[in-house]
Amino acid sequence: MHSVNLPKNDEVCRWQLFLLTPINTIIMQTSLTILVVNPRHDFTKIGIYDNTKLLYLKRIMHSAGELDKFERLSDQVSFRTNCIIDELRQNDMPLDGFAAVVGRGGLIKPLGSGVYEVNDKMLNDLYNSHYSEDVVNLGGMLAHAVQKEMPNAKAVIADPVVVDELEDIARVSGHPAFERKSVFHALMQKWIARKFARSQIKPYEELRLIVVHLGSGITVGAHHNGRVIDVNQGHDGEGPIAPLRSGTLPAGDLVRLCYSGKYSREEVLKMLTGEGGLFAWFGTMSTIEIEQMAMSGNKQAKLVYGAMAYQVAKYVGSMYAVLEGNVDAILISGGIANSKYFTDMIMKRIRSMAPVHVFPGSDEIEALGMNGLMALKGEIEIKEYK
User: Over 70: is that where the pLDDT of 372 sits?
Assistant: First the structure.
């Protein structure tokens, strides 16, 4: 028996098996091998599952020179697809051994929670950015393109960011021309909620939870018996300060800025998402760097970083009110949840509301893979996008 040493990060392949036989032999012995595809701005992360066991994890990096030649995100599909297929072939992974390709869900029409097969209607909405353009839109497009090379696989997405289970009262804003929308980290919020429910030996559908996801954007959702009945619109609308998003801004000042003649529409939108939040304040989205600045005595870093935690706690408080003070647990997840310094600032304000559980990290690969597995095993329905 021999083992493969695990690297300290996922920029190279990560094996979680002690291999007695080559990976292509293992893949051929199972009918539930799943490829997971999670596209990000400068890399495409892929994972391969043999049922519940992660066999392979790779972050395929893309240089600015490679991506800058593409005018639109959808123009990158062929390039990224070839990168994925080349990676699989270089590792002797038989393409006919995959049962599913699961892509990250993008900005499509509002949907119920679940797994959806990629079809022509979905592809049309994604390629034409009918609802909005974001790198997550590549997930469904790449799943479909890669699946063309895999004769036995289904192409699906799971819990896209547009999962919409809001109560009618949560949709109402202060003007009839503006309706509150549900755009949030549905995949991770639902997955963490289900993992917690299993740890408590209770159905997710019987719990009342507040779930916080701390990523480049931050969303806080009220989960009531299996449905997210209220959540901040984390894409470009509202919420706490986040590494790349400004969150809720003073509305009047924002309108006046838009009509000042100083900024284009695109520049204002970038202020909201992409170049807002911590990036706007410090020129970096790295919470590690900003936290080090705060701990080293930088007053502005301490104030703004503290304000981000303060605002997260405020939104937790608002969801506590949504659930009428009847909350089984508060769950905090995402990459920034690795920071005890940051989570402690939140917890001191919310710990009296309900038990708080922290799930450090953000593993979309696991969430996508296990959703795909549940769908293949018939434990959840594969839905049609209409």
Answer: yes
Instruction: Give DSSP secondary structure letters for 320-370.
Output: HHHTTT--SEEEEEEGGGG-HHHHHHHHHHHTTTS-EEEEEB--HHHHHHH
Range of the domain at 324: 168-354
Separation between Cα atoms, residue 351 and residue 62, nearest integer Å: 42
Does position 23 have pLDDT exceeding 50, yes or no?
Answer: no
Q: Which residues pair with 329 in a beta bridge?
A: 209
What CATH number corresponds to the domain at position 262? 3.30.420.40
Q: List, for residues 204-261, the tens digit of each pLDDT value.
A: 999 999 999 999 999 999 999 999 999 999 988 899 999 999 999 999 999 999 999 9
Domain count, the chain: 2
Residue 14 lies in a domain: no
Which of 29-33, 126-130, 371-375 has the largest mean confidence?
371-375
Are 144 and 176 in a shared domain?
A: no
CA-closest candidate to residue 104, choices 51, 49, 35: 35
> How large is the average pLDDT for residues 136-158?
97
Does 107 map to a domain? yes
Nearest CA to 48 out of 13, 77, 73 is that of 13
Residues 6 or more apart from 155 whose CB is under 8 A from it?
100, 101, 103, 117, 118, 140, 143, 144, 146, 147
For the record, the structure tokens of 74 come out as 């959808």
Q: Cα separation of 171 and 237, whole Å?
A: 13
Number of other residues whose CB lies within 10 A of the CB of residue 258: 15
Cβ atoms of residues 219 and 232 within 8 Å: yes
Q: Are 154 and 101 in contact (CB under 8 A)?
A: yes
Q: Are 45 and 61 in contact (CB under 8 A)?
A: no
Give the number of other Cβ atoms within 10 Å of residue 130's Cβ: 12
Chain CA centroid to CA 368, Å: 10
Look at residue 175 and give its three-state secondary structure: coil
Position 180 in a domain: yes
